[in-house]
Each structure stands twice: as structure tokens, then as C-alpha cells.
Write a structure and sequence with these properties.
7-stranded antiparallel β-sheet; about 350 residues; globular; 2 helices; mainly beta; about 40% strand
Length: about 350
């Protein structure tokens, strides 16, 4: 496989270690020490000069040998003018790039209105919405422009017969009051009053702006299906995409691709859920199953869950509510609806 800029070491495995090196491993999971500022208002986040640079970029790169190819990049803000840039050969995750494809990382430092990039015998810059990288020997170059991807199901209206859990007007369909914000969103930490068995769930969420935070301290929440299976919500933009990162089934399974968008962009989960089955004696006769689309891309395809996840209730017969976790962060939710499926 042809490599960019004649860099034999710019392979997937090395890039993983560089990205994950940003985080502190403890107890088998990612964590961070101390409290960090958390901004939930986009206008307030935009006052941070780093905010304009973070996000996704797409364009073309010319390898040392060969024709120009599609290239994507994700720029992760780390606070204080520091950045980590992950460059993907073939496009962005879910749009050309898939697990195992080539990628590499670079470090960035903001200098007034420009972010200077270094790494892997390359130099580059981000300025005026463009990301450019040049190899030291001049044989390779890429030029990418900042884009903002949106989920195709963003703002999707509930179909006829759906239970509207939250549409921005009232929190009357949820337990644990006090999570309604002036922006007509709900902060994580609530449970549906209604209980469900098999259903389609649509939920939209927005991660907070927390550039100084790391790992599980960075905009942490989760959606508990059947009150016992957690679909993780986390700012894992640009990371590997593990079971304890956005889209993962916590402690059980990682997503097929990390479709987490940058913080402060609205994202969607569209979930097809089939509850476990139990006999009259309380013995489980069939495992739960689910399919998840994160921002329109299938990240779990009709998988079977043979156990629950930590943090809520043990497995059991339904119907049961859906819980939206509050985990010390202010992840926002909106446009939540559930369409129940009738048993055949």
C-alpha cells in the first residue's frame, strides 16, 4: 500500500499510540484528573480562539508517488492553543475511511490566527479555514478545507404513533426534573416516564466544549436502553472508538467506526432495539438485540447482547424505561422520540 510523503512509519498502529498518548490510563479505562471548565452555549464556546480551528477538514493529498487521493483530517482542541491532528487516508471516518486504513497524527500549536503543525517529518498550518501539510523533502502535499458534517436524521420528526419524550417545549414525559435549560434542551440525568419493550429510538445530543479535559472526564453521558444496556456518549472526537467511547456498548463492544463529531455539533442516535425475552419462571430465553446508526452511519448491526452493562439495573423482563445518564457533565439532549414495535 502506498504511503504518504515517503514515510514508512506513518501506519495505523503507530498513530493509535500517538493519539491515545494524550490520555491517562487507569483501571482499564480512560480517565482524567481534576475538574475542567465546561461550556454548553455555542456562542460562549466560540469566544475561545481555539474553537474556530477544531473540527473536520476534507480535501486531497498528493503522495510521494502516485495520483492525488481523498484525505480527511480531524483537529482536536486540547486547550491553551494546543491541538492534535489526525489525518485519514481515503477520507473521514464513515466517509471513505474505515478501521485499519492508513492514518497518522501531528501536533499543533496556535500562534495568533494560525495553527502551526509538526510531526512525521512534515510541517503544516491551519489558517482561514484551510489545513495544508507539506513533506520536508517537498514530494508530498495536501490541502484540505474545513467542513461541518450533519447527520441525515438531524431534526427528524416523530412518525405517527410515536411517543414524544422531549420536543423542547416541556419535560413532563421524564422523571428527575430540573434538567431543562434556557436553550430548550435537557441535560443528562433523566429517565422516561413511559416504559417500552421493542422500539425505534431517535435522540439528538450535543457534547460540551471541554478542551482541557481528557478521557472519561470529557463530556460524559450515556443512553441506557431497557435501563440496563448503556450506549456511551462521550467527546471521543478523533479517537480510536472503543467500547467506553462514543457509540460503544459500554464494557461490551466498540463501534464499527468512530462517528463522533466535534464538540458543540448536534449528533444523532437512531436505535432499533429488541428487548430480551423471559419465560414465566423468570429465565431468559432470548438476548436483547440492537442496531445503531450514529450520525446516519451503522456502527452496530443487529448485534446480540448477552449481558447488561454497569451503572443501572440488572437485566430483566420489560417493559422498562430509557435512562439518559448524568455523569458529572452537561451533555444536552433534544428531539427524543420512541416508536414502539408490536410483537408479531
Amino acid at each position: 500500500m502506498q504511503r504518504y510523503f515517503s514515510l514508512g512509519e506513518s501506519r495505523f498502529a503507530g498513530a493509535v499510540f500517538m493519539v491515545m498518548g494524550l490520555f491517562l490510563w487507569a483501571g482499564g479505562g480512560l480517565t482524567a484528573l481534576g475538574a475542567h471548565r465546561e461550556v454548553i452555549d455555542p456562542e460562549e464556546a466560540a469566544k475561545d480562539p481555539d474553537f474556530a480551528f477544531q473540527g473536520e477538514y476534507l480535501g486531497e493529498g498528493k503522495p510521494a508517488k502516485g495520483k492525488p487521493e481523498k484525505v480527511g483530517a480531524q483537529v482536536i482542541a486540547l486547550g491553551g492553543g494546543k491541538f492534535q491532528v489526525v489525518v485519514y487516508r481515503g477520507g473521514l471516518p464513515g466517509d471513505g475511511w474505515k478501521r485499519g486504513d492508513d492514518r497518522f497524527t501531528m501536533d499543533g500549536q496556535r500562534q495568533e490566527n494560525t495553527v502551526r503543525l509538526e510531526g512525521r517529518k512534515m510541517q503544516g498550518a491551519i489558517a482561514d479555514g484551510k489545513l495544508t501539510i507539506q513533506s520536508s523533502d517537498g514530494t508530498g502535499k495536501m490541502v484540505l478545507e474545513r467542513i461541518e458534517r450533519k447527520s441525515p436524521t438531524l431534526g427528524q420528526k416523530p412518525p405517527a404513533g410515536a411517543v414524544v419524550v422531549f420536543d423542547g417545549s416541556s419535560d413532563e414525559r421524564v422523571e428527575e426534573k430540573g434538567h431543562l435549560t434556557p436553550m430548550q434542551t435537557l441535560l443528562g440525568g433523566f429517565t422516561t416516564k413511559d416504559q417500552f419493550q421493542d422500539y425505534t429510538l431517535h435522540a439528538e445530543f450535543r457534547l460540551s466544549w471541554m478542551p482541557e479535559a481528557r478521557g472519561q472526564a470529557r463530556s460524559n453521558s450515556g443512553v441506557y436502553l431497557h435501563d440496563c444496556y448503556e450506549v456511551q456518549v462521550l467527546d471521543s472526537f478523533g479517537l480510536e472508538g472503543e467500547h467506553n467511547e462514543c457509540g460503544g456498548i459500554y464494557s461490551i463492544r466498540r463501534p464499527e467506526v468512530n462517528m463522533c463529531l466535534p464538540p458543540m455539533q448536534w449528533q444523532t442516535y437512531d436505535i432499533e432495539f429488541t428487548a430480551p425475552r423471559y419465560d414465566a419462571q423468570g429465565n431468559k430465553t432470548a438476548n436483547a438485540r440492537l442496531t445503531i446508526r450514529h450520525n446516519g452511519v451503522v456502527i452496530h448491526d443487529n448485534i446480540e447482547l448477552d449481558k447488561g452493562t454497569p451503572g443501572r439495573k440488572p437485566e430483566g423482563p420489560g417493559p422498562r424505561p430509557i435512562h439518559f445518564q448524568g455523569h458529572g457533565n452537561k451533555v444536552q439532549y433534544r428531539n427524543i422520540w420512541v416508536l414502539e414495535k408490536k410483537e408479531k
